[in-house]
Amino acid sequence: MIKNKIADDKLDTLVSKSVVPIIDLAHCGKTVVNRVGQQLHKAFTEKGIAFLVNHGIADEKIKGVWDQFDNFLDLPAEIQDRYRRKNGVNYGYVSPGIERFDGKTPELRHTYNICKLDDQNLPREPLPEFADEITNLTNDFKTISSFLLKAMEVALEVPPGLFAENHSQMLEGDDVNMTTLRMIYYPAIVDDEPGQSEGAIRCGAHVDYGTFTLLSQDSEGGLEVQLPGSEKWQRVGHLPGAILINGGELLSIWTKQRYHALPHRVVIPEQEQIRTRGRHSIAYFVHPDNKTPIDPQDIQKDEASSSNEKIYTAYELIQKKFNDTYGQRS
To answer: Scanning 8, 58, 150, 207, which has the fewest C-beta atoms within 10 Å of its C-beta?
Structure first.
């Protein structure tokens, strides 16, 4: 155990090099909105990524949800099948090898998307504690997100409520808002099982589609990013207890690319002590309400911009991304 910990510490990561900004959310209130907004603004314009600490979500609460997802994965296949994601919707369970960002490379992960806190999205009947614990945690992520949206309004000097009011339907269903809580489990890679990881990846290279993403992970597991201005993939590393935040493509469009949408992927780690253990993470993808027009003029007035330039809604832009990635909504 000590040997493995030392090996992990020696990984060359953005965390080990202190490259990722750290934003302290302690005592989140009106007195710190401006400070957090400015720090987030600096992080999104320079790095596209940051760590949030003192965010108020206990480690035990997050671990409890990971344990509940493990319980779901232990259910018989016929019960899991009731909650599999169907074509045309964004919620439900997806088993390893189904999602392929490049259309061909299998992705070795279990995922479960939740877009609304109801019985259709949550397996309440077989696992009542699953539904209760996830509802609790999801509301915490929603609270943090609402605070961050207000902080961005201050930093960007936009009218109060521009972001908050256009994200008012988070977790009310993907028919009105695409905000999604995703539970993820990356199985251990056992090298003596032929072909298990050959030609595969944990998550293919992509940028997130929405406003921003909050990510909690239980260990270092192969998350890599391309920082702004670089095509080099760099391992992020793990900061225990912190929540990672990265900007999404809609926010980048909204800010005329002042805020970066960071390309990222999750590779199968080459280190045996990492690849041979499973890894949990939870991603909270924050999206504007579907009907929200994503107009850069809302944030940065530009007289040179053409008034005839077509403005798309958040829903239209997201559907275009789904079509580009999957060929259809998936």
So the answer is: 58
Identify residue 256 by its one-letter amino acid code: K
Beta bridge partners of 113: 92, 182
Domains of the chain: 2-326 (2.60.120.330)
Strands 49-53 and 92-94 come out as: unpaired
**Are 189 and 196 in contact, with CB atoms under 8 Å apart?**
yes
112, 93 Cβ separation under 8 angstroms: yes
3-class secondary structure, 239: coil
Q: How confident is the model at residue 184 (pLDDT cuts 50, 70, 90)?
A: very high
For residues 129 and 141, give the distance between their C-alpha atoms in angstroms, rounded to a whole number.
18
pLDDT of residue 329: 42
Please give the helix or strand (H or E) that residue 281 lies within, else none. strand 279-286
* Nearest residue to 322 (alpha-carbon basis) of 268, 249, 266: 249
Q: Can you give the pTM of this predicted structure?
A: 0.89
- The Cα 134–Cα 69 span in angstroms is 9
